[in-house]
């Protein structure tokens, strides 16, 4: 049975053949990597300071985005070998690559994309979908200082969702607390699309239809085990998956706490 309408059930897997260039504007020092399928991928390294949970957030939020109609570049898993780290001349990058041998997250590189600056505002309905996505996943990384939106081929694309679903950082030590996440309000005052977005209620209705229990479970399945570290309470990747399913399903059912506009 197919439960996901847009994204594939598994991330495609590629192997890095060359580290091309670091993207220094980003805080996590992502780099552009060429892979064995000749694609170029903006790659977030497992060895970056934020840890692998941010990679899980990227996969989960991009999946949710695509299923509710927000364009996101394709995500892949990128295998990085120690060879590539060894030949890197930049010391800072070499350290990061050495710490990232194994499975990293790649995002299809959109050549020539412009950073979103509002000079051509996003379409109202798409803006509403992105605002809904950020409120649902508690993503604070969509401000004018840091829009994390690209304009490419006449469309607006959403990137960089590592800051969303921040609750999982507590899972290293604490038991999950879905109730707390369900009730967390979302402040739209700094959101880059707050002024242009159409009402978000129709997006929420669409999301309820698209994101039933099976779909949420399937989106959680897309995250590789390597990015679901166990903690003191959640002792296996499978229990971490269960916590994500639970948090997302419960928050979806209680928009009265977080849906912008507060109409519910
Ligand atoms: N898929 C992509 N295609 C083209 N440029 C990208 C892509 N992803 C990121 N970038 C560029 O790299 C920058 C940093 O990437 P981002 O995902 O925001 O990382 P960080 O977590 O470091 O902020 C972005 O602001 C954007 O300019
Ligand atoms: Mg960013």
UniProtKB/TrEMBL annotation:
Residues 24-258 form the HipA-like kinase domain. It comes from the Bacteria. Pfam families: HipA_2. This is HipA-like kinase domain-containing protein.
């Amino acid at each position: 049975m197919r439960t996901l309408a847009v994204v594939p059930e598994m991330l495609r897997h590629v192997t890095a053949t060359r580290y091309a260039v670091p993207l220094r504007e980003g805080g996590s020092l992502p780099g552009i990597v060429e892979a064995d399928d000749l694609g170029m991928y903006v790659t977030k390294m497992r060895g970056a300071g934020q840890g692998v949970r941010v990679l899980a957030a990227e996969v989960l939020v991009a999946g949710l985005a695509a299923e509710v109609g927000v364009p996101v570049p394709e995500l892949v898993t990128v295998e990085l070998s120690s060879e590539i780290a060894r030949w890197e001349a930049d010391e800072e990058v070499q350290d990061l690559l050495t710490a990232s041998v194994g499975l990293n997250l790649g995002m299809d590189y959109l050549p020539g994309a412009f950073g979103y600056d509002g000079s051509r505002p996003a379409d109202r309905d798409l803006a509403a979908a992105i605002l809904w996505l950020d409120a649902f996943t508690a993503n604070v990384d969509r401000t004018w200082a840091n829009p994390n939106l690209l304009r490419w081929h006449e469309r607006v694309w959403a990137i960089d969702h590592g800051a969303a679903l921040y609750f999982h950082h507590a899972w290293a030590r604490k038991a999950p607390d879905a109730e707390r996440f369900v009730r967390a309000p979302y402040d739209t005052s700094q959101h880059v699309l707050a002024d242009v977005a159409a009402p978000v209620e129709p997006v929420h209705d669409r999301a309820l239809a698209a994101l039933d229990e099976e779909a949420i479970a399937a989106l959680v399945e897309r995250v590789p085990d390597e990015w679901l570290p166990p903690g003191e309470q959640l002792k296996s990747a499978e229990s971490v998956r269960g916590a994500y399913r639970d948090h997302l399903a419960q928050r979806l059912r209680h928009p009265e706490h977080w849906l912008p506009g507060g109409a519910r």
